[in-house]
């Protein structure tokens, strides 16, 4: 997996080193896996801790979260679940912005991550100082940022959105005549702009996983599987999105897989989602959307390298030593909470409206 071009060479080298280390650290024998799972279960109980995992982490972690009363979800529901649960420690298996979001919404709780260096290309490609300058250049625009951003970027924004609520928020702002400054994912921003008609200027960021999907190879795969439906996350390039039968967030794609009558599904998002998608649609054949190689699904590319840093070993280490703790400046946390809460309030209002119109 390539590192974004706008990240410095020194940072790239450090990230690549950590990715190589993580690959070795997550390699386990069956005996080691069983032993680690049992030790983690004991450590969770001893620390009054709960494991919250993202759809994109490896299946070992997702399964463990389910078995121990935790949750496998998108980043916002991970944080919400942590707020509802009476555990005093949250183990957040995902990438750093997810741990920060959990801490922002649960400032009184200890938030630990298996790997603090588990980053996100969208977050890394949108430094807070550069984003703030971007906002200053467009003071007449409402700043809307994707959840895949740092606490500092969220603190500078007017709205935070997930992929599931981004379009309704943009439609709402457009109805008010507000112009939008969007960051950091250009593909999601372009999709939202085209669907909502909102006046938006876009930060030029992208996800290293979704940006790699290719429409030409997808056409070849579709021709080989003509009865398959194509499910696409909107962080993907526009030509890939244009081929989709369903475009949606991680949660929406899992629901679509469950409801689809197609025997096969071509899925353009991180392959970590297959664990929950197979549970939701056990009768479906799931195919990875190709990122390279005509007519072949990619066997190595459609998985976030930073998500892959989360393993059973470092999860146990975090529990036993308190390593990987997320700390956020209280003032930054309070300011970042405002646009997050605005999104959550809007999402609840939107849910009730949709329910009332059903």
How would you name the CATH homologous superfamily of the largest domain?
NadA-like
> Any idea of the CATH topology of the largest domain?
Rossmann fold
Q: Indicate how many domains the architecture comprises.
A: 3
Q: Strands of the largest sheet, in order across it?
A: 2-1-3-4
Q: H/E series, N to C?
A: HHEHEHEHEHHEHEHEHEHEHEHEHEHH
Give the averaged pLDDT, no decimals: 91
Helix content: 40-55%
Can you offer a commentary on this structure?
This protein has helices at residues 9-25, 30-46, 59-67, 75-84, 96-105, 121-124, 128-137, 151-156, 166-175, 186-196, 215-224, 238-242, 250-259, 274-280, 312-321, 330-357, and strands at 49-54, 71-73, 89-93, 110-112, 142-146, 159-161, 180-183, 200-202, 229-232, 246-247, 264-268, 285-288. With 358 residues, it is an alpha/beta fold. The radius of gyration is 20 Å and the shape is globular. The strands form 3 sheets. It has a 4-stranded parallel β-sheet, with helices on both faces. Strands 6-5-7-8 form a 4-stranded parallel β-sheet. It has a 4-stranded parallel β-sheet with strand order 10-9-11-12, covered by helices on one side. It has 3 domains: 9-119 and 306-327, Rossmann fold; 122-207 and 333-357, Rossmann fold (3-Layer(aba) Sandwich), CATH 3.40.50.10800; 210-288, NadA-like (Rossmann fold), CATH 3.40.50.10800. Helix 2 runs parallel beside helix 15, helix 4 (75-84) packs parallel to helix 5 (96-105) and helix 9 (166-175) crosses helix 10. The relative contact order is 0.16.
């Amino acid at each position: 997996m390539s590192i974004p071009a706008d990240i410095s060479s020194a940072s790239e080298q450090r990230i690549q080193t950590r990715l190589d280390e993580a690959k070795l650290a997550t390699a386990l024998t069956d005996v080691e896996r069983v032993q680690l799972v049992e030790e983690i279960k004991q450590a969770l109980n001893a620390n009054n801790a709960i494991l919250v995992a993202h759809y994109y982490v490896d299946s070992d972690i997702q399964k463990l979260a389910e078995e121990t009363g935790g949750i496998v979800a998108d980043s916002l529901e991970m944080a919400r679940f942590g707020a509802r649960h009476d555990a005093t420690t949250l183990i957040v298996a995902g990438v750093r912005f997810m741990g920060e979001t959990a801490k922002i919404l649960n400032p009184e709780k200890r938030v630990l991550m298996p790997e603090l260096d588990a980053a996100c290309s969208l977050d890394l490609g949108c430094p807070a100082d550069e984003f703030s300058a971007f906002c200053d250049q467009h003071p007449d625009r409402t700043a809307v940022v994707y959840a895949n951003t740092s606490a500092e970027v969220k603190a500078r924004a007017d709205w935070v959105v997930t992929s599931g609520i981004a379009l309704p928020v943009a439609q709402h702002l457009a109805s008010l005549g507000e112009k939008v400054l969007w960051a950091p994912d250009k593909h999601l921003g372009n999709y939202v702009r085209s669907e909502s008609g909102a006046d938006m200027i876009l930060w030029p960021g992208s996800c290293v996983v979704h940006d790699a999907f290719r429409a030409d190879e997808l056409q070849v795969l579709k021709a080989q599987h003509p009865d398959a439906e194509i499910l696409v996350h909107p962080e993907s390039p526009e030509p890939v999105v244009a081929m989709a039968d369903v475009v949606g967030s991680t949660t929406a794609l899992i629901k679509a897989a469950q409801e689809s009558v197609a025997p096969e599904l071509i899925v353009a998002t991180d392959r970590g989602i297959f664990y929950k998608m197979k549970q939701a649609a056990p009768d479906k054949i799931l195919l990875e959307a190709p990122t390279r190689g005509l007519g072949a699904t990619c066997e190595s590319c459609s998985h976030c390298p930073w998500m892959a840093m989360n393993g059973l070993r470092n999860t146990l280490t975090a529990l036993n030593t308190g390593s990987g703790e997320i700390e956020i400046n209280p003032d930054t946390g309070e300011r970042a909470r405002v646009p997050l809460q605005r999104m959550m309030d809007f999402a609840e209002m939107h849910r009730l409206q949709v329910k009332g119109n059903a």
